[in-house]
Amino acid sequence: MLVDAILQSKGVVVHTLPETGTLADAVAMLNTHNIGAVVITAAGGGIVGILSERDIVRQLGKNPGGALDLPIASCMTRGVFTCSRDTPINDVMERMTRYRIRHMPVAEDNALIGIVSIGDVVKRKIEDVEQEALALREYIAS
Q1: Can you tell me the distance from the alpha carbon of 37 to that of 16, in angstroms, rounded to the nearest whole number?
Q2: SS3 of 54, please?
Q3: Do the strands 16-18 and 37-41 form a parallel or antiparallel pair, or are they unpaired?
Q4: pLDDT (0 to 100) of residue 67
Q5: N or C: which terminal CB in the chain sees fewer CB atoms within 10 Å?
Q6: Contact 67/56 with Cβ under 8 angstroms?
Q7: Per its UniProt entry, which superkingdom is the organism in (predicted)?
């Protein structure tokens, strides 16, 4: 199973912000769209980072009174791990586990085309296991 299967079922909407925004902008976006991370893009649309709830909480722990005024660029995670539509879901799971990340942008030719979360991956794996169990039950019954 490939990442493309997840994108086909969930869609390809990705919420982004420029690195010049503030943590307050990011918090508003996360709350508005009920998401756990936002991809940070450069003026040309390229991925320059990702900002997750975890990144925000760390800043709040360091600077409770002024964290929301900080620029995203100073708080985001750089060196984002990405995948493509053709990446096997098992590879995404392995990378998410190894690097302790919960969101992975999907990019092709340096263009952002989607995002998958650990929840998306787990949901898809559960669906696959349920389908396999059904097929086995049908095989045994016949």
Answers
A1: 9
A2: helix
A3: parallel
A4: 93
A5: C
A6: yes
A7: Bacteria
